[in-house]
Design brief:
With 132 residues, the chain is mostly beta strands. Helices cover 7% and strands 42% of the residues. It is built from one helix and eight strands; from the N terminus they run αββββββββ. It has a five-stranded mixed β-barrel with strand order 4-5-6-8-7. The radius of gyration is 15 Å and the shape is globular. It binds zinc ion. The site of zinc ion has 8 residues, from loops.
Length: 132
């Protein structure tokens, strides 16, 4: 699976991962080989997008051309299927966030961001919100 395919699915709110036929690990975002065992026997699998927050950071300085997005919260989420992915967190103001965030259940949504001078066109990015 190419990154382009992954991004195309993401735009439709589908999170795709690669399940390793050798060791069973789930890899996301897509990789050429399994990150656990370096196997190449990988099969596309759809993931739930649900998981819990492992760590986070608040970013006050956005990339050039994205100044209007700051401040924003980036979370590392451990998906129920195992892998960790990174995404923006909505649902809470960046100045209200504290260590209580660790362990909170979240669910993935998607936002399509317009292209900028560093990207080849618009791109979908995971956007997490609290699980109801
Ligand atoms: Zn593997």
């Amino acid at each position: 699976m190419s990154f382009k395919e992954f991004n195309k699915a993401l735009k439709k709110n589908k999170l795709l991962g690669l399940k390793c036929g050798d060791c069973g690990a789930i890899n996301v975002p897509p990789k050429m080989v399994c990150s656990e065992c370096t196997g190449t026997n990988l099969e596309i699998t759809e993931l739930s997008g649900k998981g819990s927050v492992k760590t986070f950071t608040t970013n006050y300085v956005a990339a050039e051309g994205r100044e209007c997005e700051a401040p924003y919260i980036i979370v590392m989420v451990e998906l129920d299927e195992g892998p960790w992915i990174m995404g923006n967190l909505i649902d809470i103001a960046p100045n209200k966030v504290d260590m209580d965030l660790i362990g909170k259940r979240v669910v993935m949504g998607v936002k399509v961001f317009p292209g900028d001078k560093y990207s080849a066109g618009d791109m979908a990015r995971p956007l997490f919100s609290f699980e109801a």
